[in-house]
Amino acid sequence: MNCIDYMNKISFGISIAFCVLCSCTSRTGQKSSDETLQVDSLAQDTIAETVAEPVVKKITPEEIQITKELLYDKYTLEDTYPYKDTTRSFQWEKIKEQLALLENIQIQPSQWAILQNYKNRNGEAPLVKNFKRNAYGRVADTLGVERYQSVPLYLLTDTVTPERYGQDGELTRFIEDGENFVKAEPIFTEGEWMIPKKYVKVIGDTVVFNKAIFVDRHNQNITALERTEKGKWVVRSMNPSTTGLHRPPYAQETPLGMFVLQEKKVKMIFLKDGSKETGGYAPYASRFTDGAYIHGVPVNEPRKTQIEYSWSLGTTPRSHMCVRNATSHAKFIFDWAPVNETIIFVLE
Question: Given 24, 295, 320, 329, which residue is catalytic?
Answer without folding.
Answer: 295
